[in-house]
Amino acid sequence: MVPLRPTSGKPLSKLALTFSLLALAVAVFTKVSDGPKSTTPAAMAGKQDALEQRLESLEKQLGDLGRDLAQLQEDRGERTPNPGQGAVAVAPVPVEKQPAAPSGTDSIDERIRKEVDARMRGVKEHLKRRNAFGQWEASMKELQAELSLDEGDVERVQDLFNAHKDEHFDLFSIANDEGVNQWDRMAADFREGLPPKTVFERFFKRFQETIPGSDETYASRLKALEVQMLERLSEVLDDERMAQLKKLNLALGQMKTGYDPAGSHIRQLLGGQ
């Protein structure tokens, strides 16, 4: 294999190749992060497959980078090529030995790894499912990994999330004087042939309406339910995990637990559509 050569005609050193791969990783990340932002659930779902494919490509490049870095650590000194039969012989390329990093500071290799890790965390954060309010619609498996929950805690936390979904369902099931509730209105929007994006935008705007038989808005009641939910979670999780959970900005009423009373009801209203 003929080595890559810069414009000067000299072969690229292993360290130069490493920086080239890092630049490629950063470029891919920038391309993902700089795409058009949309906070609607339909738009976010529509971009998921494309973004995951870009992440897979980036992870492959980062895997190659990791192997090059490992080889770089082994190749301190002179490298003597061992071309196979019929291969083009390449003159030995001296690799400059990097000076030892001062005590308390990272080596070049370590700084590169930290930069790559930080970029990868950013890409994964970008790919998280978000609702219209920018909250993460996490699965229980994802939450378990984030909070290092044991199986017993997972079961108790999942029960709390499912009960919270029932509270949301009951709230939007309150009918007005005409016997119509918010789920009925959403189903009517779907029957009109409106795109899902428009249906959900209308639904979210109705949060500012007053709950039938009350002076309270849906938004105000939802906020109160969220506060109650966090209090219940604090009875299961310790202070450290509660602090972690709050930083995740979770969509508490839209956790992926496998239980979806609202979705099942809407499908029933639409005749199994």
Question: Which terms summarize this structure?
Answer:
disordered N terminus, two-stranded antiparallel sheet, 273 residues, mainly alpha, 2 domains, elongated
Describe the structure.
This protein has a two-stranded antiparallel sheet. The protein is an all-alpha fold. The protein contains 10 helices and 2 strands. 58% of the residues lie in helices and 1% in strands. It has 2 domains: 14-126; 140-269, no CATH class. Mean pLDDT is 75; it is low at 1-12 and 77-96. α2 runs antiparallel to α3 and α6 (182-191) runs antiparallel to α7 (196-205).
Class per helix and strand makeup: mainly alpha
Provide the number of structural domains: 2
Distance between the termini: 57 Å
| Unreliable runs | 1-12, 77-96
* Main beta sheet strand tally, sense and closure: 2 strands, antiparallel
Q: Strand share of the residues? A: under 5%
Shape: elongated
Reading the helices and strands in chain order gives HHEEHHHHHHHH
Structure summary, number of beta strands: 2
Rg value = 27 Å
**Mean of residue pLDDT values:** 75
Widest beta sheet: strand line-up:
1-2
Helix content: 55-70%
Q: Number of DSSP helices?
A: 10
